[in-house]
Write a structure and sequence with these properties.
22 strands; eight-stranded mixed beta sheet; 408 residues; alpha+beta
Length: 408
Amino acid sequence: MQVASRVPGVSYDCDVLVVGGGIVGLATAYAITRAVPGTRVTVLEKERGPARHQTGRNSGVIHSGIYYRPGSLKARYAVKGAAEMIKFCAEYDIPHAVTGKLIVATQREELPRLHALVQRGRENGIPVRELGAAQIAEYEPEVRGLAAIHVGTTGVCDFVEVARQLGEASGAEIRYGAEVVRIDRRAGLGVAVLTGAGDVVRARVLVNCAGLYCDEVARMTGDEPGMRIVPFRGEYYSLARRELVRGLVYPVPDPAFPFLGVHLTRGIDGDVHIGPNAVPALAREGYGWGTLRVRELGATLAWPGAWRIARRHWRYGAGELRRSVSKGAFVGAVRRLLPGVEEGDLVPAAAGVRAQAVLRDGTLVDDFLIREGERAVHVLNAPSPAATASLPIGREVARRALAVLGTL
């Protein structure tokens, strides 16, 4: 496609302005310049480097796509994205490994859900191997369960390095330390964005990949997103006795929640992370109970959907909170999979925060959510497996942004 000519008398700093320098924002910049070379792209990131939040604070897993509803964006993009991510890492010499993983049922009531995952994997085109209790030890000698499935296409990588490489390969202008504080959008002209440093960046199209703040950026643009981000903190421990875990071990997830439960992950650096749980965060970047931002917490509490989640799922939430404040309770959850673990084996590690979109009626948005406004494309729900799926997500967002650009 051809980039349309500029509006007479208006000076643009770029054609497409991407807000957010996480892996999705940088994959979008990469996809735009690959699809239409010569398109001028600028990325604004409020931190001093890329991938400082969701991208850089997850367990580094390249997900297979087995968990997600067949036909959904998560299923299609995770399956496709996993293969592409491995190729991208190999091309740019980024540390990665295809390790496979176990999903283990430890209670009889989990067996039907485990079997349903086998069926879902097959529908999504993912090969799985079903294991009896004795066969689990072939992969993980210290793990116990009634049954398991092995998913061979799962892997691990360094997503921060992937994000950095995407930014470099895109050729985009990336401005770090550039927090967006105001957006002025005018029909027929475009968008002007004011940063905290007082700089103004003018663009013809805005792409919102702001993650934990995506709903606020949408509203600054003048678009009502119809959802709000409710932040959930995931707390991790590192395993002192690494030899207890060879690879990746997951419990059977609760189908009512998009969280995968406390799992065991040997990362690309050899460290074994255990977690996360899922507790409400008191700030969008609330990586500990000591971080409270009154305005952000007030905005969460003012959203009707947040209260409806609490009323509907308080029992689940109470269990997660208990594991947050009690290391013993957390260890008890881990022992379901790894009976030999001791409380002293767990060393606190960095936490992450999941940007979970919640609708007004309390529904947790369970798929990627991308919406468009005038001269804007908003990525409104892109938690896990967004890092795995970042290359296909980036292409889809780029397609939409370039379509808008081509009509101006």
